[in-house]
Design brief:
The complex is a heterodimer of chains A (194) and B (469). By secondary structure, chain A is of the alpha+beta class. Chain A is 42% helix and 12% strand. Chain A folds into two domains: 2-47, no CATH class; 69-193, 60s Ribosomal Protein L30, Chain: A, CATH 3.30.1330. Chain A has helices at residues 2-20, 41-47, 69-74, 77-82, 100-115, 133-153, 178-184, and strands spanning 89-90, 120-126, 161-167, 186-193. Chain A has a four-stranded mixed β-sheet. Chain B folds into two domains: 30-189, TolB, N-terminal domain (Rossmann fold, 3-Layer(aba) Sandwich), CATH 3.40.50; 198-467, TolB, C-terminal domain (Neuraminidase). Chain B has helices at residues 2-11, 18-26, 78-97, 123-128, 173-189, and strands at residues 56-58, 63-65, 102-103, 133-141, 146-154, 159-168, 198-203, 221-226, 233-234, 242-247, 253-258, 265-270, 275-277, 287-292, 298-303, 310-315, 322-323, 331-336, 342-347, 354-359, 366-367, 374-379, 386-392, 397-403, 409-411, 419-424, 430-435, 442-447, 454-455, 462-467. Classes of the chains: A alpha+beta (194), B mainly beta (469).
Chain lengths: 194, 469
Amino acid sequence: MRSRVMSGAAMALLLSVMAAGCGEKKPPVARPLPPPPPPTPSAAATARPPSPPQPVAEPTVVPPEPIRDNAIASASLDELNRSSPLKPAFFEYDSSELTTEAQQVLNGNAGVLRKFSSWTVTIEGHCDERGTAEYNLALGERRAVTTRAYLISLGIAADRLRTVSYGKEFPFEPGHEESAYSKNRRAHFVVTAK
Amino acid sequence: MKRTLLVMGAASLVLVSVAAQQQQQSQPAGQPPLQPQQPTEISTTISSDQAGLPPRFAVPDFIGLAAEGAASSAKPDAEVADAARTIGRVLWDDLNFEREFALIPRDVYATVPAAKSVTDVPFDRWRELNADGVIVGTVRKTATGVRVEVRLFNVRSQQMAFGREYSGSIANARLYAHTISDDIHQQQRALRGVARTKLTFNSDRDGERLGGTVENRGVKEIYIADYDGENQRRVTTQRSLNITSTWSPDARSIAYTSYRRGPPQIFVSNIYQGTLEEPTKNGAGQNWLPAWSPDGTRLAFASTRDGNSEIYVMDRDGSNLRRLTNNPAIDVSPTWSPSGTQIAFNSDRTGTPQIWIMGADGLQQRQLTHEPYADRPTWSAAPFNEIAYTARTGPGNDIKILELATGAVRQLTFGEGSNESPAFAPNGRHLAFMSTRAGKAQIFTVARDGKDLRQVTKTGNNYQPDWSK
């Protein structure tokens, strides 16, 4: 055990000597020594000078499901929208007014949009199935427009925010009860460019 | 008479081959009565011998005859026999649809010996079945296609009340039946039948999904079908969301809302030419719910181009755009009056969606309905002056009809599933609508008194029907 620690220390020393003497022709005392035991990953890591500091997880803007920034930056649009950092805002029945909860969600979304200032997004207005298909086209649009106006009031540039209404054409939950309806009355965010 | 048939021929271009068209045009479409008639004959309409009841008609299968030039003892080929059977049965259904005649059920016809020609009709036997009229038709192959002869006999007088000859391709036997039905309704009852009209609607039946999007969303494509649900055909193939299709008055074009460019825009598909127009191509905002003016030159539609959903009118090429409503509330779902002087629409300016009416110039806007929720007005044809609409009646919606002269409202459906998007037949006697009563969303037709419900679609979900004029 002791000899192992010794040999580990010796190896670290040896490697640093090697690194230091990189430009010279011959490393002097390297060869005669017995081969070191196979390095464990941690040994290899500690052996690499100078070891960079471990990246510290940065507190993210969106509280519920923190997504690491580099993951967001490298994700394709499809991947990004599949687990989007932009959360949907939900609405009351036959209403396009923003509830307190919806405003909080949009405050968070505004933070994301400020952070990723190159993104443009489409705000989709959706409705539950109780209204008629025709009127819901207009109601969904009003939800999207209300949402867009709120984000603009928070300082997001208007030309980054487009709207489209799908009425009740694309329900997120297929059910026929309030639990499904409440999920389908929403402003849904789709990132269209990064 | 010839002109009528030519118009029919043009409208059915997709169904009858070009050769058949030429055939129809080169031959006299209608023939004078083939039987000698008494000079004293003054009425060729058949009525019931019981006052107040519709005349009872028998419509047996048509008679397949041997090809022209063949020996009289020769048998008709299978194609002709098939067409003869189809024409008889479809004609029975078509004549039954308007309920102007009481059709004697087909299953009792087996007791009557089938006629072999127009000269051996067993009138006595039809009289035993209380028939007032019997239709005898023959189908014979010719050098260029097929010739169909139809005669309607008064069973009591044994005289012919209607006789006409049709020729063309054998390819679509149903179209002969539809044409004969419309001609008989016109000649016997002065009624414009709807047997040759078509429906358009949107459907997710193909199960296709939008490509390249974040959500796994299904597409909806525009379809057309005969009024009875036969010959269902897909019109759009863009794999996107295509909804709210409506027939142009000449039934040669379909205007609809499509999301294929991203935001919804109005497209006009000229279905017999295979060309497409985009009248809102350069318009901002969302553009949807096109409605043809009765003369087919203009489209009313809803748009958010000025920031809020309003009703607009434009020429069918997109020019001469004019805004009709100016209101912070939602204004959608325009429909024209048959004369083209008024437009009914949906507005929630009172707090709930209600049906409103205004002049085609946007003036004199006033509220028509006081429902909890009302949408999708659709104006009937004369002589009925009615607006059908969707009304919230409970958890779902039902179809209601408002009589404009009296303001009386009657309900057509009663809580079986949700019932939406009514569309009148061109003679105002039936409506098509969407209902979830059978589980999925399907297109149904129903008479304007709520009777005679028929399911038109069965595959996938089908929405927002419109009936050709």
